[in-house]
Amino acid sequence: MNLIRQDLVCLNYSNMKLALYYTAKIAYRFWSSKATWGSQVSAKSKIKSCRSEFIGNKKPKVKLTDQQKQILEAISKGSSIFITGSAGTGKTYLLQHIISKLSKIHGKSRVFVTASTGVAACSLNGQTLHSFAGIGLGDASNVDLLSKVTLDKKAYRRWNKARALVIDEISMISGEVFDNLEFIARSIRSEELGCAEKIWGGIQLVVSGDFFQLPPVISNKGQQKEFAFQADCWNASFDMQIELKTIFRQSDAQLIKLLQGIRKGKYDSEDLKVLDQCCSNVEPDSSAVQLYPRIEDVNRVNAERLDYLDEVLFHYQALDSGKDPWKKQLKNGIAPELLKLCVGSRVLLTKNIDVISGLVNGATETHKLYDREISDICGNGNLLPVVRFDSGQELMIGLERWYVMEGDQAVAMRKQIPLILAWALSIHKCQGMTLNNLHTDLYRVFGFGMVYVALSRVKSLDGLHLVNFNPSKIKANPKVLKFYERLSGEKDEQKEDGVTDEI
Ligand SMILES: Nc1ncnc2c1ncn2[C@@H]1O[C@H](COP(=O)(O)OP(=O)(O)OP(=O)(O)O)[C@@H](O)[C@H]1O
Fold this sequence. Notes:
The chain is of the alpha/beta class. The protein folds into two domains: 1-55 and 251-400 and 416-469, no CATH class; 66-244, P-loop containing nucleotide triphosphate hydrolases (Rossmann fold, 3-Layer(aba) Sandwich), CATH 3.40.50. It is 38% helix and 18% strand. It has 18 helices and 20 strands. The strands form five sheets. Strands 3-2-4-5-1-6 form a six-stranded parallel beta sheet. The protein has a five-stranded antiparallel beta sheet with strand order 14-13-12-11-17, covered by helices on one side. The chain starts with 16 loop residues before the first helix and ends in a 7-residue tail after the last helix. Bound molecules: adenosine-5'-triphosphate. Adenosine-5'-triphosphate binds at residues 62-65, 68, 85, 87-93, 210, 248-249, 363-364, 366-368, 432, 434.
């Protein structure tokens, strides 16, 4: 199937020298390459080489903090670690370094990268924890889950093969599930590998997340072990539990103080004044991403805005390969099955494109997502979109691939344009993102952690706009507060015993 019709690309702007240059060149190359879905890799590399002729391919280097380096060293020594810290302290960024280190130590195929949600898993090129484990919804007794996994040859093999297991966004995994997974790992590995029973069957465990962010979705509200840290095996699972302290996402001291308070469910009159100044009932400006607690509001706003533009709609249908259940998991990722765009759509780039991260954010290549300005679809039919970024730079966005990995094996893959409509996003979907300008309606906020997740996405106060803000919605779960008190208490005790600050 032809993706790129051999029509010449037309641009809607007249003053886009740079974009015109790229586009003209790309259009020519596509014309001559007769690109199809199958040949997109070469088309994409042509886009990249074409871009780098103009803007270079430099990736700004990020220096790891002493804490981050200490964690990497401990990983090299085989330690199992829980990494926590406020939003924007670089947990996921560090995980990327950890994953490459673990792959060197154990071999790529023996390192399994997972996360509690599809979106978080996709951003690490991993899979959801539940699908790695083969436990389905995971709502059965440990013995029943063990039999389920034992009957699932592939899942059983994964548990045997694993030398290291990475779990991101742990706040959304319950203690019940965490204990059950430990039981499965220990049972399968001691039986199959013929070794004495060890915790997690001897797998090196790297777990990351912030329990002040979104909690697990639990059907049985009476469940005793709501959070993973309440699991019986939690403390025994780690050699080290460490809280990252340096916040990178924000640099403004007032905003950092405000967010640190909200994280713990606290605020003072100064914080309320700051939040008050962010409140306004004025229609959000078009560069702001609107965050809503409920997906119905997100879909409604995006559909309304798309409709309002009254432009020709372009449909981009994802191309999926692989088998179920892996293929089904692609639906939980960030790349939509059907992407509808038109000229003027507000979009979000959902995949890190090296050349963009260096140029636009001037920071690192590791941002998981970027908020960007108006997109411009060029040409017609199946032509590729050209996006104008906040920096003013314009790029044609080619196809990207999202994989579901089983060790080093890709078991399913989705090809899609790495964009989603982004006038509005759900607070659940934005966990992990960094946004320049956000507008959030907190009227329908429910549960703990939601206000914190929404507000902590933003980089500076200029970019924070609120409606329906009610201080009573700022709340932290008392169990989580206790856990962190204990964590820092233990740290203080260790300090008195002469142990280093971080460990
Ligand atoms: N050592 C570092 N120096 C500079 N920037 C860093 C460093 N570590 C991480 N960052 C940057 O900090 C930002 C936030 O990182 P990241 O998204 O990993 O945070 P996080 O703790 O996972 O946040 P969240 O809890 O919201 O998911 C990213 O832009 C990342 O590139």
